[in-house]
Design brief:
Layout: H1 3-18, E1 24-29, E2 32-37, E3 48-53, H2 57-66, E4 72-79, H3 84-92, E5 96-107, E6 120-122, H4 126-136, E7 152-159, E8 162-173, E9 176-184, H5 193-207, E10 213-216, H6 221-228, E11 231-241
Parallel strand pairs: 3-4, 9-10
Antiparallel strand pairs: 1-2, 2-3, 4-11, 5-10, 5-11, 6-7, 7-8, 8-9
C-alpha cells in the first residue's frame, strides 16, 4: 500500500460512514478527492470536504476555490517525513484557518498485537443494534449491515447486557479497510476495552483477508494504536476559510 492508497481508503470509508445518515459519495477529479452529499440526499446539505495529497499549495487552493459549493473544508494529507508545520503556514498565508491535526495510522491485520475477548462481539442482530444506537445517541449501523459478509461491520463491548463501547470496520477499497469511531463510554475507560474492541475487529479483518487497516487518531488514541501494531504514516491537516462563506459549521465525525 502507498500513502495515496491509504488516503483513498479514508475517502471511501468516510463516505460509507456518513451514508448512515443519507447518501454521501467520494469522487476523484483532477488529482483531488471530493466528499459530498449524493444526488439522492434530502434535507439540509452537509459540508463538502476537498482532499489533497502531495499537491502544490497553489494548485490545491485553485481547485478548492473552483468548486461552486460555499461551505467546504480542506483536508490536506501530509506523509511522514514532510514538514507539516510548513504546510500549515503556507495555507494560513492563503486565508485558511487550521482546525485540527490528526495522525494517520496503517497496519496489516496479521501484525495485530491485540487479543479479542468474550466482552466484545459483532453486532449482528437488530436488538443489539438498537441498544448500541441508543447508547451512542445516533445511528451506528443499518439493518442491511447486520448480515454476514457486510462490508460495514460494527463491534460492541458489553457489560451486563449493555453496550459500553463500539468500533466499526468498513471495506473501503481493495487496498484495505477503514476503522471508524472507536469509542468507550467515559465511565468504562481504563479497562482495556478499546484494545479488546480493536482485537475483535482485527481478528475478523484477518479472517476475511483484509490487507491493511487504516485509521485517523485523536492524540489520546495515538498512544494506543502503536501498542496494537499500527504504524504512523503521516497527518491529516484540516482547514476551513478564516472568514466568509464556509467559515462556519461543525467538524465531520
Amino acid at each position: 500500500m502507498q500513502f495515496e492508497d491509504a488516503v483513498d481508503v479514508f475517502g471511501h470509508g468516510i463516505a460509507a460512514c456518513k451514508s448512515l445518515f443519507g447518501p454521501y459519495v467520494y469522487e476523484k477529479t483532477e488529482g483531488f478527492g471530493v466528499l459530498r452529499d449524493g444526488p439522492e440526499r434530502k434535507g439540509p446539505g452537509r459540508l463538502v470536504e476537498v482532499i489533497a495529497c502531495g499537491q502544490p499549495v497553489d494548485r490545491v487552493m485553485d481547485f478548492y476555490h473552483s468548486l461552486p459549493m460555499s461551505r467546504k473544508f480542506l483536508c490536506v494529507f501530509v506523509r511522514d517525513g514532510i514538514d507539516h508545520l510548513g504546510e500549515v503556514a503556507a495555507y494560513r498565508a492563503r486565508g485558511m484557518r487550521l482546525m485540527v491535526r490528526e495522525p494517520l495510522f496503517v497496519m496489516k491485520p496479521e501484525r495485530a498485537h491485540s487479543v479479542a475477548t468474550e466482552a466484545v462481539r459483532r453486532v449482528d442482530n437488530w436488538e443489539d443494534a438498537l441498544l448500541v444506537n441508543r447508547a451512542a445517541g445516533s445511528r451506528q449501523v443499518l439493518a442491511s449491515q447486520l448480515e454476514e459478509g457486510s462490508p460495514n461491520r460494527l463491534y460492541a463491548a458489553w457489560e451486563g447486557g449493555t453496550p459500553v463501547g463500539w468500533v466499526r470496520s468498513v471495506s473501503a477499497t481493495r487496498f484495505g479497510n477503514w476503522v471508524s469511531n472507536l469509542y468507550v463510554l467515559p465511565e468504562h475507560r481504563r479497562k482495556g476495552l478499546g484494545s479488546q474492541l480493536m482485537g475483535a475487529m482485527l481478528a475478523e479483518d484477518l479472517r476475511l483477508g483484509v490487507s491493511h487497516s487504516v485509521l485517523l487518531s485523536s492524540h489520546v488514541g495515538a498512544l494506543l494504536y502503536p501498542t496494537l501494531g499500527y504504524e504512523y504514516w503521516g497527518k491529516l491537516v484540516l482547514f476551513r476559510p478564516k472568514r466568509g462563506p464556509g467559515a462556519t459549521g461543525t467538524l465531520r465525525t
